[in-house]
Structure formats: structure tokens, C-alpha cells
Amino acid sequence: MKQLVQASIAIIVVCLLLFFASQSLESAGSKGSKDTLTVYNWGEYIDPALIKAFEKETGIHVIYETFDSNEAMYTKVQQGGSSYDIAVPSEYMIETMIEDDMLVELDHSLLPNLKNIDPYFLDLPFDPGNTYSIPYFWGTVGIVYNPKMVPKDLTFKSWEDLWDERLKGKVFLVDGAREVIGMGLNSLGYSLNVKDDAALDKATDKLIKLTPNVKAIIGDEITPLMIHNEAAVALTWSGQAADMMWENEELDFAVPEEGSNLWFDNFVIPKTSKNIEGAHAFINFMLDAENNAQNADYVGYSTPNAAAWKLMDEEVINDERFYPDVELREHLEVYENLGLTWLGKYNEHFLKFKMNLN
Amino acid sequence: MQSKNRTALIPYVVWIALFVIAPIALVLYYSMLDLSGNFTLANYQNFFSPVYLKMTFTSFWYAFLITFFTLLFAYPTAYLLTRTKHKQLWLMLIIIPSWINLLLKTYAFIGIFGLYGPINAFIEVFGFNPQQILFTDFSFIFVSVYIFIPFMIIPIFNSLDKLNPSLIFAARDLGASSWTTFRRIVFPLTIDGVKSGIQVTFIPALSLFMITRLIAGNQVITLGTAIEQQFLVSQNWGMGSTIAVFLIVFMVLTMLVTGQKKKGGRV
């Protein structure tokens, strides 16, 4: 008994010590909120040299943290444990965050470089007038494929090519309900944001016909697996495709012409921010043509910054696969926030499709 | 003395209330809420739709296969271990892999089973074409069995180790063949170890979810996958909790079936 008590006391003391140590470390990190800035971004999504340059230019110390899904980011910002000054959610999540009153209204007078952004990417339905968000990168959902591993006549200009019998067991799909169900809807000519049970049923039936071709439905593991030619074809985001093509030059990317998803990741300032002025300075810094071009070059995604395009490699900017022209963009759709009821239905259909795989 | 015992019980009661009863009560409560937080039983109704029934069936089937193969490999291994000279050392060597993070081991298997991985390289030496191993039932069951084997071996090893060897000598002296000795003496006396081994394998195997995606590429969908999706993607806590309630029920049933029956006195 005595030993038990001693052991318990020892454990409690160690826990308390660790707790206070982590507390003091954290407060040391976020002390003097005027001269620090906490940026909450996706992994591998910024050129670290730019953070250094920003710190040097403004004297603000940047704390950089990363997340791997919009939902995870949402939960952490909502809990309010850390004082994030900048976050980078995707468009449908911005809608949710605006609804839940989690974002600070932006002061456009502090963002003179906003003029650099191509007007096409401003004033979008998820945030009219860019009251809360500034576009950071954008892209599409499409098909990355290895031309050496698929029949020559398949160019994936159409979603139908995925259903080709010769692709049996050669296709990876990304594990996202909206991407996969969206592909089914697009291939039938429906909108990605359709709220119609009949359309969803038809899309799911069509997807079930695709199952013999599907090798696996996985997440970020798609990138290394495609780089190593484990499969011939994968449905994925353009940014991820760019990463794969950087490593494996045999790969090619196509956005089917029937339409697809157009996505945006945007800077926002959550209400947890303690350095709103510094956050504006950071956004403005990243919008600067030169900095933006450097960042886009490093990250490899498509930037909406028209001034930066002029400074970038022409080959990159004219690459229709990653910078589709306006005409093609007309066929692309931005995800709308479906609401929980319809989001649930999309997921039920996705689950039904997955159940038919085996 | 009596009152002292009662005070000593307080931490356990608090612990059980906080970490066992409260969570289960919360899961039950959430399972009866719909998306907008109204009281409903629709989630339970939904669970009896073909999609979830089929999923329950697959979960059970794969959990059964995993437990079966784990037992098939674990029992002889544990048996041989008790016969070796440095049995604690060998047992240690078998347990060490379970110290390594599950995710790391799983990722390692992606490389090993890949089209250009070592196994296919080995197959090619003999002039065969590379086989698709990753994202099949085989790879899923193989990796799961690999992960669960140490947990099955330990209880079986312990019960075999405690077995009084004179019982075996007596059986042999009385003319039992080695098979009869095993069937009538060794196995019945170690059945409790087997039962706890089955519990620690079957119950977690029912709700596996990460391996279903990484190794089976979602070709295998278990109830665990559905719970993950309901909570993280659909944000439908009600439906996720409902599936969890059914899992709890299934687990209790498993415990009852494999539970140790007290048959007066101890073995």
C-alpha cells in the first residue's frame, strides 16, 4: 500500500511538472502577441525562405503550424486553444466558418497588393466581395496517368475513359466522397452540387460499374504509389498531380472536359487572432508579385496572382493542365457547402459504392 | 478496516464512472440524436438498411478470419516456445515488434507488398510476372494477423507455461498417444488462454479501420471505417454513435461467449 501511494505521488508530481513545463513553453511561444504571428497552413504549402524574409522585413516572429484536413483545422480553431492569426481553409470550409462567425472581416486598405490577383478569382460565391478571404492557391480535380501503362487512345479528355475495360484493376481513387461522387455526377452531366436523390442514385449506379477498374481508394498515399508506378491511373487534385509529375516525369495530367471541380485555398483571419494587423501584413506580403511567384515556384500549385504570372516561367503559366484557359474553366464548378443533411447523403452513397468494391 | 477499504475504492469508482460509464452513456445519448440535435430512433432504423447489415457481416467475417489464422499460428508457436531453452528470450523477441508504432509497420508493408517491392522481386527471380498483393484480401488478413499475433501468443504462452508437466507424463504413462494427450489434457487446460487470446484479437479486429484503407485500399469496409467517416467527414455524430452502440453490443456478446466460466474451484 505504501509503495502504491509513493508511486502514485511520483506519477502525479511528474505529470504536474510536465504540465507546467509545456504551459511555460507555450506561453513563451505566444508571448507578446504584437510581435508574433501564428500561421496555420497545410503541410508543404509555403516556401520557408519567404517566412524568413517576412520575419526580417517586419520583425514579426512567425510560428508556423500545419494541418492535413479542413475538418481538423476547423476543430482546432473552434476550440480556441491556440491563437491562430492566419489559416488557409478551402472554399466550402470558409462558408461554414463565416456561418459560424469564426472569421475577422478583412481591411482591404491594408492589402494594397490585392490588385495583383486576377479578377476571375475574386468575388466568388463562397465569399462575395472577399470580405473574409483572399485566394492563395487554386486547382482542379482531374486524372493523373502514365501514358506508357494505358492504351494509346485513352487521353482522359472524358471521364468515360476511366470506365474502359482495358483499365481493369489499374485505377486509384482518392478517398473523398465529394470527389468520387462528383466524378460520377460530372460524367452524367449533373452539377457537382446537385441536391437530388435521383441524380445521386444514378451517379452511384454508374460508379458501381467502375468497380472492376478500381484498384484501391486511398488518401495521400496515392502520391508515393503513383510515383512508383503502382497503378496506371489516379483520380486526384491537380496540386497532388503536380507533386507526382515532379518526381515521375512519365506521368501526365488531364481535366476531363465534361467538367470537374475547381477549388481554392484562401487566407483567412480567424477570430482567435491576437495580431490582426500583422496578419494583414503577412497576407499582403504573400500577395506581392515577386514573393508570390517564388512561392508558386516552390509549392508547384497554381497561383491566382496575375502579377506573379509575368515573373514566372512561361512554360508553367501556359501549361493548360494546371492553368486551364477561361473557356475550360467555364466547365469547372466550385463546391458549395451542401449542409449536413446532403453532405451525409453524399457520404452514404460513397459508402454504398465502397461496399460494392469487393 | 471496513471503512478503510471503502475509501480505497473511491478512485476506482470515480475512474469507472468517468471513463467507462460516462462515455458509454454519451455514445447512447448521441446515437439517439439526428443531425439537428432532435431526439430520434432513425439512426437505429438506418443501421438495419442493407448497406450497414452487409458491413456488419463483412466486419464479422474478416474478424473471424483474422482470429482464426492468428490462433492457427499462435498456438503452435506458443507451444514450441514453452519447449525451448531460453523461452523468456524467445517470447521477448516475438513481443518486440509490437513496440513499434502500428502505422509505421503498416506503411512498411505497403513497400514490401508493392508491385516493385521485395516479394515481387523474389517472385520474378523464378520467372513469374509480378502479382498484385497490396489491396487484396490476402494482404489485409496477412498484415492484421501479423499485428495481432503477439497479443494472442502471450495469454496462450502463459497458460501453457503454467501447465503442470507431470500431467502430461501421467497421460503418456497411462498410454495416451501424443495427439490424445494434447486433445484431452493440454488443450482443455489452456482453453482459458485461448479464450483471452480470442478476445484481444476478435474484438479489436471487428473495428479495424486504418489497415482497411492503407493495406486493403478500402476493398474491405468494416464498421470501424463507417464510424470514422460518420464522425470526421459527414459530421453525423448520431449515426457514428449508433454504429458504435452496435459494436459495443457485439463486443459484449463476444465476451460472454468466450468468457471464463467459473466451474467451482480453480484449474
From TrEMBL, chain A:
GO terms for biological process: polyamine transport. It holds the Pfam family SBP_bac_8. One of its GO terms (cellular component) is periplasmic space. One of its GO terms (molecular function) is polyamine binding. Spermidine binds at residues 44, 92. Keywords: Periplasm, Signal, Transport. It is found in: Periplasm. InterPro entries: SBP, Sperm_putr-bd. This is Spermidine/putrescine ABC transporter substrate-binding protein.
UniProtKB/TrEMBL annotation, chain B:
PROSITE patterns: ABC_TM1. The chain crosses the membrane at residues 12-32, 60-82, 89-113, 133-157, 197-216, 236-257. It is found in: Cell membrane. Keywords: Cell membrane, Membrane, Transmembrane, Transmembrane helix, Transport. GO terms for cellular component: plasma membrane. Belongs to the binding-protein-dependent transport system permease family. CysTW subfamily. This is Spermidine/putrescine ABC transporter permease. It comes from Lysinibacillus odysseyi 34hs-1 = NBRC 100172.
